[in-house]
Each structure stands twice: as structure tokens, then as C-alpha cells.
Design brief:
Elements lengths: L1 H17 L9 H21 L3 H9 L7 H4 L3 H18 L3 H24 L8 H8 L9 H11 L7 H11 L10 H10 L2
Amino acid sequence: MLEVLQNLIKEHGQSAVVDNPAVPNEHNDDVMNEVMQGLMGGLSNQATSQGGLGSLIGLLGGGAGTNSGGLMQNPIVGGIAQSVIGNLMQKFGLSNNAAAGVVGSLLPSVLGGLINKTNDPNDSSIDMGGLMGTITGGKTNGIDFGSILSQGAGALADGKLDMNDLMNIAGSAMGGGKQQGGGGLGSLLGGLFSK
């Protein structure tokens, strides 16, 4: 998964970082690495925060608003962007405008590419289970994220997500609705609806 992310960053980093006169050439690789670390750290923090799992599943499942332009409007991505902008300013001496330009160009392109690759049935380089395993450090508590997200995409096909959709998705992910240690179905649904 990290190799896929690194390749996306190199691919999109050429114009956002390497060809950007506001980024000193000696910092090109470090700036791109900082974006990658910030993205992974932000997604990991979201996965472990109270109520954050449902939002993360919605983002990575490729629902509405995950094209490059719409991604920056997502609160998860916005929070990651602000953190990375601050880090680029502090670590590399970039101005606020320069750091915001790098992040505004690179972050949605990389994340959008990652979401597209993850949800493309013809692309075997990464799947949702592998992505969530990397984000959560392998601590999935028995939840099959691949199943949740593939079903979630179907549930969102009508443009709305109702309680029946959630119960079907969560029940299937938890082994037909049986609770598995650590909170099971109730824990998952609590995470989806927590503020």
C-alpha cells in the first residue's frame, strides 16, 4: 500500500513540488515525503477517533465529493491539509501561500488517485482491506473493511444511506450480525453515528 502511495506522490509531485519555484530543489523529496506522512497520519488518526471510522469509510469508499476538487471540501482532508501546511512551513521554511499551493495541488490528486485505485475492480495493486489494514496498523478488530466498503458503494448507489443499509453492511461485516468481542455491531454503528 505504501508503495502505491509513494508512486502516486511521485507522479503528481512533479508539477506540485519539483517544478514549483517556491520549493527549494534540495527539499523536493522531503516535501513529498512530508505530504505522504501527513496523509497517512491523518487517515490513521481519523480511523481511531471517536466516530471517525464511519466518515473514513465514506471517504475511502469513493462516495460523492471524492473527485479532486471535492476532496478539499471534505473535513477529514481539510484537517490533514492544515496539518501538512503547518509542517511544511515549519520544517522547510515555505511561506503559507507556497505550502498551501503544494498541499492544494498534491493532496487531492494523490488521495483521489488512491481512492480510485482502491475502488477499481480492474486494479489489483491495492484493495480496501489492505488500505484499511495499513491505516489502522492491522488493528481491525475482526471487521472486514473490504466487505463493508464494497457493500457501502452499493448502498450509496441510490444517493442515500438509511438504517437498513447500515444494518445490512454492519451485520455482514460482523459475520451475519453476530457480535464479535470488542463491541461488535453496536460499536461499529456507534462509531458511524457519533458526533
